[in-house]
Amino acid sequence: MVHSIFGGIHLEGRKEGSRRKPLSVPDVQPKQVALPLRMHAGEPCAPLVKAGDVVAVGQPVARGEGPVIHASVSGRVVGVEARPHPWGDACPAIVIENDEKDTPWQNEVPDGDWRERSESDLIECIAQCGVVGMGGAAYPTADKLRAARGRVETVILNAAESEPYITADHRLLLERSEAVLTGLTILQKAAGAKHGVVAVEGNKLNAIEGLEKTAQRTNVACRVCGVPTRYPLGSEKQVVKAVTGREIPSEGVAIDVGCVVFNVATAYAVYQAVVEGRPLTHRVITVGGGAVVRPRNLWVPIGTSVADLIRAAGGLRERQAKVLTGGPMTGTTQTDWNVPALKSTNGVICLLDWERGERKPESDCIRCGRCVAVCPMHLMPILVAKELKLGGDPVELARLHTEDCMACGCCSYVCPAHIPLVERMAQAKNIVQQEEREV
Ligand code: SF4
Ligand code: SF4
């Protein structure tokens, strides 16, 4: 059974450009990759290599408290240099000149059946292979599993790609379904969860049918759940509600209601780590949008620049395109195309003028209530905007639960007065956090 979710909006999918094309590797390898030391949630990693070192694919090149970064190409380290970062500002990155030989590092290929390994051994393997949440959060997967152990009964694989243009997970489900389902089973064992669910949007019938057949053939006991095609179903709170009917409390996480959620690409990386002994060095990225000549899903080394990714998709029709990493609703606009793809980059979307939607001048609120009706977090953006106009009292703003805003942008999207409500929510959140820091 699928449970209804509150709020959200229907968006035009615009996925035709890439969803039918099989995963491909670029015709030309990147000449260089840049691996930023800040690639995960938490503190940045420290480099383990220096200029002049020769590295192989899969060799650890930086390490933090938990996360590890591995070389994604073989070649010579140019240095640890400040490079533009897709999250903003510059960040030290390990720059590797690609020798295009793809020399593999001597990873230990695990002996025997992974089912015989202990839970802590599986979690340690996932940590050493540098696996993180690849749907955007980049939270170390091993830490999430440690927090979930003994507290959850359901692992949910979130395959609800509700942002327009992005089809990376869809292609992984179609082409690597057996590996993804094995990844789910490993995650279940590591978290000590009885049930496994794959949540797929109801309009991806080929993925649903393919997963059901693969699960039957490989004896994987999981439920494939068709969830509504509605933005922002890709978020953790919405997907847990749709699959289980449980509401995650304000400031809570899925583990509080007995679930833990992972992205499809993360499950695939877990499979590669545990079954093949491969660290996370490559990922699928959708290069799409009307400005791209040949939209597609590319299997690329992490650290490949946005410019190289666009080139690998045939280049741009228009130099003036707006380029984003991530989808058009929550992605980040990139003005410097030298920024590298991170472990959590699922798309590079290049939009033409007509696709961007013109930003119209803001007018007065007409109290239509649409922003309240679409907010999946049951917030009242209209009241937040009003309070900010009055001066923004931190106590009043905190009472409106601004910290629960997940910046999905639904309120701004529907507002007939064109008030940038998502920006107002961010402003309000900052005021509340600032006040909390000062108290
Ligand atoms: S951006 Fe925040 S306030 Fe607006 S709809 Fe999304 S969660 Fe609600
Ligand atoms: S959607 Fe815009 S115009 Fe309508 S109530 Fe909200 S802020 Fe006011």
Strand content bin: 15-25%
CATH superfamily of the largest domain: NADH-ubiquinone oxidoreductase 51kDa subunit
Question: Which spans have pLDDT < 50 for at least 5 consecutive residues?
Answer: none
Average predicted local confidence, pLDDT: 94
Bound ligand species: iron/sulfur cluster
Structural class: alpha/beta
Name of the top-level CATH class of the largest domain: Alpha Beta
Gross morphology: globular
Which fold name is given in CATH as the topology of the largest domain?
Answer: Rossmann fold
Kindly report how far apart the N and C termini lie.
46 Å
Indicate the percent of residues in helices: 25-40%
Largest sheet: 5 strands, mixed
Query: What is the CATH-assigned architecture of the largest domain?
Result: 3-Layer(aba) Sandwich
Total individual domains:
2
